[in-house]
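Example record

The entry below shows one chain as it appears in the dataset: sequence first, then structure tokens.
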Amino acid sequence: CMDGFALEFVADHQANEGSKSKAVFAAGCFWCMEAIFEKIKGVTNVVSGYAGGNEKNPTYDQVGSGATGHAEAIEVEYDPSKITFHDLVRVYFASQDPTQVNGQGPDHGMQYRSIAFYADENEKKIIEDYMAMLTSSGKFKSAIASQVLPKSTFWIAEDYHQDYVKNHPENLYVQQESIPRMKRALDQLKDLLN
């Protein structure tokens, strides 16, 4: 049996815990992106899903057809006292070839396009400034193709897509694409790893 004081204590305790923020990114296969972001310090949860289109409650098959306007995406929940949005943008660009138009690696189509979503003008500026820095660095021979769009509804993908790389290390795509892509990204992000 709890009285009102105990309930009030719990609520106050939860309010004082680290605050959480969410960021949404798309860059090819969401399995690959999810596996990369899960290794980053300050990231508390990563969910695979769909964003950037108009279809409500889209399915994997619908998004895969290219007809919904959605891209495979991830929603990253993070503790801003442990990692900044700027660092998440750094992870995002390290995890892909941002010059590839409508795809990543062997995955082609609008549903695999690269999109950095922003929640406000500050996030938009962080993304655009980072893209400008990459462009001026000469790292890429082609122009950056990543879109910068305002956040829209994020639709969670079917359960079997969640933690796919972790749960299916034997999968041929995971072995040939997801794991090598994750290793390439994490080699550039050693200061941000858990």
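Notes for this example: The beta strands are 21-27, 43-51, 71-78, 103-104, 107-108, 114-118, 147-150, 155-156. The chain is about 40% helix and 20% strand.
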